[in-house]
């Protein structure tokens, strides 16, 4: 089967809610990563076959196929098409899968995959809230088929996080200790310049340049313990949840033919890609089933994988996944995760992949595995091999 290669991967810094990137139009935010990717690789943009971007809540500045708009906003050739996809939190990881599958099928040779989300401008679940204003129900309410299968129960990521913490016996103190480690790892990574190569600074309207992730915090267990839980008597607080933020990211996927034709130097190859579903009410347990499936299909074991990125939607998601799969914490999210760096939903998949690729190169690792929980109880898994 033909190979799919990762030529380069970039991301903007993550801007905290209401922070440096809050006023930036989503198309321009995505265009910045795309432009940087084209410039860094030196690839002829006219040779790109497609642009696939992940994005959720596609209203306002994110509506109307933001992938196409972003490519044009970047001033790039208008014969190159774009498509926007929504697999909830895994949208841009799925964009990489679609790009790699196109290359592996032999139908395309160069594809830009990435994602964008301005959560400051367009709040999470905004599309559902707008729909309700026009008389439409939520995705789960008033569906006879859904009600017959799952009943009239709350479907919420917050409820799921509480359910996981309870089932796996995580105390609030354990969750907060994990969250503190995420911040400490991210701050160390920033201080040591680990993100310098992957982050493309963003010139702002006021003439300044935004170059460093805004979300990581100097915090403590004492500060976390002072927060009120999201549900009375619950374990989940804002401290153990991913941060709302704004960002974009992009990856160039190429075929062996494109590598030769354009004189490109691939940095990794896609070794495995898959996606699985799990109980949509539990929702956030998807990475457990999906990772087991991926390891079985790829013939690799946990010991074969040098680094893991498991998205920190909530601390119990990663803790339960590590326990079930048998992954040591020292190999997981080594530069911090969504609790510290933020979770710009549509952009997170390729944000994680960008960090995973660069960290494999920094440490000399061979295989990296990436997974994340997604709305509807789904999870993508990608295994990349550093070249």
UniProtKB/TrEMBL annotation:
> What residue stretches are annotated with the Thiolase C-terminal domain?
265-386
Family membership:
Belongs to the thiolase-like superfamily. Thiolase family.
Instruction: Report the residue ranges that make up the Thiolase N-terminal domain in this protein.
Output: 5-257
Record keywords: Acyltransferase, Transferase
Spell out the catalytic residues: 89 (acyl-thioester intermediate), 343 (proton acceptor), 373 (proton acceptor)
Enzyme category, top tier: transferase
Q: Which InterPro entries match?
A: Thiolase, Thiolase-like, Thiolase_C, Thiolase_CS, Thiolase_N
Entry keyword annotation includes Transferase: yes
Keyword Acyltransferase present in the record's keywords: the answer is yes
Name of the featured protein: Acetyl-CoA C-acetyltransferase
EC identifiers of the protein? 2.3.1.9
């Amino acid at each position: 089967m033909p190979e799919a290669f990762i030529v380069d991967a970039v991301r903007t810094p993550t801007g905290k809610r209401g922070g440096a990137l809050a006023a930036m139009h989503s198309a321009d935010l995505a265009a910045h990563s795309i432009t940087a990717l084209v410039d860094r690789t030196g690839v002829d943009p006219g040779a790109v076959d497609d642009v696939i971007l992940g994005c959720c809540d596609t209203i306002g500045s994110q509506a109307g196929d933001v992938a196409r708009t972003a490519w044009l906003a970047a001033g790039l050739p208008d014969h190159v098409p774009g498509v926007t996809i929504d697999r909830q939190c895994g949208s841009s990881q799925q964009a990489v899968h679609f790009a790699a599958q196109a290359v592996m099928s032999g139908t395309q040779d160069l594809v830009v995959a990435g994602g964008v989300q301005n959560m400051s401008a367009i709040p999470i679940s905004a599309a559902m809230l707008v729909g309700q204003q026009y008389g439409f129900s939520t995705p789960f309410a008033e569906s006879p088929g859904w009600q017959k299968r799952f009943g009239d129960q709350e479907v919420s990521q917050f409820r799921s996080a509480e359910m996981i913490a309870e089932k796996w016996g995580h105390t609030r103190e354990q969750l907060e200790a994990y969250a503190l480690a995420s911040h400490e790892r991210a701050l160390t990574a920033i201080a040591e310049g680990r993100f310098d190569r992957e982050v493309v600074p963003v010139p702002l309207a006021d003439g300044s340049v935004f170059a460093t992730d805004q979300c990581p915090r100097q915090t403590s267990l004492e500060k976390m313990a002072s927060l009120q839980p999201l549900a009375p008597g619950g374990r989940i607080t804002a401290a153990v949840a991913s941060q709302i933020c704004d960002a974009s990211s992009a990856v160039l996927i190429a075929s062996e033919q494109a590598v030769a034709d354009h004189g490109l130097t691939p940095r990794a190859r896609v070794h495995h890609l898959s996606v699985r579903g799990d109980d949509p009410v539990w929702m956030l347990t998807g990475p457990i089933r999906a990772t087991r499936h991926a390891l079985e299909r790829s013939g690799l074991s946990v010991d074969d994988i040098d680094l893991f990125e498991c998205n920190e939607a909530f601390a119990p998601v990663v803790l339960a996944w590590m326990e079930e799969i048998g992954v040591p914490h020292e190999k997981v999210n080594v530069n911090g995760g969504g609790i510290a760096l933020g979770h710009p939903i549509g952009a997170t998949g390729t944000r994680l992949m960008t960090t995973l690729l660069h960290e494999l190169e920094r440490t000399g690792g061979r295989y990296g595995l990436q997974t994340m929980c997604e709305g509807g109880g789904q999870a993508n898994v990608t295994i990349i091999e550093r070249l």
